[in-house]
Amino acid sequence: MRGRRLVLLLVLVWGLAACGKAPLHQQQAFVFGTRVEVLIAGLPEAVARPATAAVLREFDRLHRSYHAWQPSELSVLNQSIAAGRRQAVTSEMAALIGEAQRLASASEGLFDPGIGRLIGLWGFQSDDLPAALPDAGALAAWRSVRPGIADLQVEGTEISSRQREVALDFGGYLKGVALDRAASILKAQGVDNALINIGGNVLALGSKNGQRWRVGIQHPRQPGPLATLELDDGEAVGTSGDYQRYFEVDGRRYCHLLDPRSGRPVMHTQALTVLVTARLAAGTLSDVASKPLFITGGDWPRLARQLQVEHVLRVDADGRVQVSRALHTRLEYAGGQPKSLEVIP
Length: 345
What we know:
Strand order of the largest sheet: 1-2-6-7-10-15-16-17-19
Distance between the termini: 41 Å
Radius of gyration: 20 Å
Number of strands: 19
Low-confidence stretches: 1-20
Shape: globular
Oligomer: single chain
Structural class: alpha+beta
């Protein structure tokens, strides 16, 4: 038996019809394998439309340049790593790899874009998810080496690897990078008030015609939001969930969030959301941080402090909700506060 749902962080932009004469430009596209949306408030179409177009062009460029499973600059690098060759890359790619290595180290290796081969073993690189578990021998062989992004050596714009088994996949990283790029592009074009949504990874600029942007955190097992949240200027939200990409075998769910230590999908968490307050590269951190906190499970408060993320909500495998006090004070729970709620100091 198999199943899959693409139910991501629910973005709820309330009151679109009630905005009166206040302009609100909205444009959608399909990039990074998901729906993306840009909303710009308070500007006429003549200004908002070209600004949005510039953002979507950058999204498309990033998607084409760093697709791990189709011909791209990244796939060329992966081929060179597999062949044991040193590869010259763009300065942009070298910087992305360097930043990913820093974030991987800060997450104690639980965020690791170097596990592309493991993703391939489980079949999560494909739109058509598998109906069977991967070969046990192949998984054991991968675990015996445990290749990761830390094995890469960056010397200027040349990349080499200590392990040929390293394969980069920026799927858990690039949407956050794209959020930050979008914010920079919009600001450069005179846009101060916008909401950028990439498949549920969200970054807010300014306000929606004087009101804070409001988003909803998707309930992992029910339609609609678990809670709603108003965002301040520059804040970003990211969610990881076992309901986004998964398959089932013998009634057991296997999600796309893989623990690099075991080489297997995480079973103890249904969903984890982070809010990153305004700072440099807030979008990138919001995309990255939800993964290791999801993977680490009950130890998330310690690792969240290490990642400098104060606002976290976790739903465990039994549906119990844990939330940091900093985020709890800002949430409005749908249908009232969950009975199983635990607030973490």
